[in-house]
Amino acid sequence: xxxxxxxxxxxxxRAAQAARAARTVRQRLGDAYEMALTVAILGGIGIxxxxxxxxxxxxxxxPPNAVTxxxxxxxxxxxxxxxxxxxxxxxxxxxxxxxxRTWLLSTPVNRADLLAARHRWxxxxxxxxxxxxxxxxxxxxRSGNLVLCAALGGLIGLAMAGWSVRRQAGRARRLDAVASCxxxxxxxxxxxxxxxxxxxxxxPGVGSVWLIIAAAGAAVLAGAGMWAGARxxxxxxxxxLSDGAGLAGATAAAVQWFDPTLLSGLLTxxxxxxxxAVRSTRLRARTRTxxxxxxxxxxxxxSRRAVLAGGALLIVYYALxxxxxxxxxxxxxxxxxxxxxxxxxxxxxTVCRGAALRRAIGGSDQRVRLTHLLVPAAGALVWSVLxxxxxxxxxxxxxxxxxxxxxxxxxxxxxxxPPVDYNLGATVDPAVSVLPIGMLTQLLRGPGLLIGLAAVRxxxx
Length: 461
Hints:
The protein is mostly helical. It has 4 domains: 25-60; 64-238, no CATH class; 244-277; 287-460, no CATH class. It is built from 21 helices and 2 strands.
């Protein structure tokens, strides 16, 4: 018996799916009408917004700190490239579902040909995302090199997607170090530009020659990444193709159900699995409160990325302070303090969402919650003190206490948010689409308070 080709297997799968999901002509026409209507509405909105952005970018004059803004966009690009590499390495990027792994990848069909379509779509998605980012950077920086920046972004996205496939096969083990270096380089570059901006100095400009050199280097990396990924595609086993399936599924479910806890729980589990074995020590505390506080501090010590994230947010804050209006600096400070405190609130979220855990700990629920609130509150206070120089004109009391207390209140409200109830029937039909008011009020618990505090802070500025 001869082994069928991958193309023949794909044809048989499509035929089986079509036979199983047989639909009438009326149903197909209805589906086509809904799809065409959705594409027309979303496409019209996107085209209108794009034309508006192009019109504003073409008619507006360049800002006085255009060079500083350009360097900040370069730093942001390097930082996002490192984070994208981390994300691609964590997800796959080639992901196969359980049915594909069980019924197709276990057959003697050529695996490289079976995964060829997925590989091409992955490369196309990476290149398309890079092109869109390049266009966005060009419009934000008000640069005339639209084609060059779009091409550079597409080549960078193509290179990252190609090398991530090789990393998935276990061949490019140093890609994690490259991603870490890119993240560190972007943060340091943003810190340098922010320091020069706060000192009323401007970094040297960058001409189109450097963009051409960068595009040439990115073209070499993209070609090498595509070739390297195609070579190791046949060596991808079912284990490597299923590592990111859970993360991809949790991300899709979190977006579809508007519930970020579906993704945050899985990310927390994966983070603690990377920590590995730790040496268990006894909590030498006399009271329940000190024991809980010591446990929360030990959790923070064993997962130092939360502290590093707070430092990275501080660098981003000072970098943004050089290009935005002084009126908006307090708002950015409040948002940064909230994000930094939220990274320290892992213990608070755990006890707030686990009624059985609170009963096992003992004591009142409010006491347990407030004890775990001390660490994120202290983190918000320290972050606000370190970010005070950018808003020194508003005074030390308002510049420190307001963002610290506001961030603590927002983090506590988000942690105490109950699970999303999808059975609420409160809706409003404004003749455009049905708005689920009951769902929106649940999702705005926490972010709504942050918006209100930011509005009050603008009034106080």
